[in-house]
Amino acid sequence: MRKVISFMHLSLDGFVAGPNGEMNWIKVNEEIFDYVGERIAQTDTAIYGRNTYEMMENYWPNAGNKPGASKHDIDHSTWYNKAYKIVLSRTMKDTGITNASIINDHLSKAINELKQGDGSEILVFGSPSSTHSLIQQHLIDGFWLFVNPIILGEGIPLFAGIKDKIKLNLLNTKQFSCGVTELNYVVANE
């Protein structure tokens, strides 16, 4: 069975963005890009919320073709163009591309059908409100978190609207030279 893994950068106090959606506090470097690139190269499916999908679609399809594109831009653009994209949206009707689909209702049924299908793990990229919906319906199997060395004090929390405890098992940690720490958790089976 395929697993759904939430991939997020967050502040030490648990926010994924500032109060107005700011993400300029996120630290990334080539070390993180290479590390993340190795894992996502093994992933064939990504879930995005509508806003994140629109941001991604506006940049990544052609990012690797631009003059002076970095290794990360080339690698991620190549992956993005091959990956199957699932967009969680109540308002979007069509993505306009062939390797994408939209889930706008029956979230639990649709995600559980995806989990039963062939392929690798399914990564949820960013998309805090979509992640909240997936968590609330117990559809997230793990968390791949990059904790940034900053306390924001306020913003968009990763864990909002949680009514039941979610027990986790730590699979891996990694410290990066820029001060970011990766925490890789799987949801514990009770």
Give an overview of the whole structure.
This protein is of the alpha/beta class and 190 residues long. It has one domain: Dihydrofolate Reductase, subunit A (3-Layer(aba) Sandwich). Helix content is 29%, strand content 28%. The chain contains five helices and ten strands; from the N terminus they run E-E-H-E-H-H-E-E-H-E-H-E-E-E-E. The protein has an eight-stranded mixed β-sheet with strand order 5-4-3-6-1-7-10-9, with helices on both faces. It has a two-stranded antiparallel sheet with strand order 2-8. Strand 9 and strand 10 (181-187) form a beta hairpin. Helix 1 runs parallel beside helix 3 (71-82) and helix 2 crosses helix 3. The longest helix has 14 residues, at 50-63. The two termini are 18 Å apart. 26% of the residues are buried.
**Name given to the CATH homologous superfamily:** Dihydrofolate Reductase, subunit A
The CATH topology assignment is Dihydrofolate Reductase, subunit A
The topology string of helices and strands comes to: EEHEHHEEHEHEEEE
Question: Helices and strands: which structural class?
Answer: alpha/beta
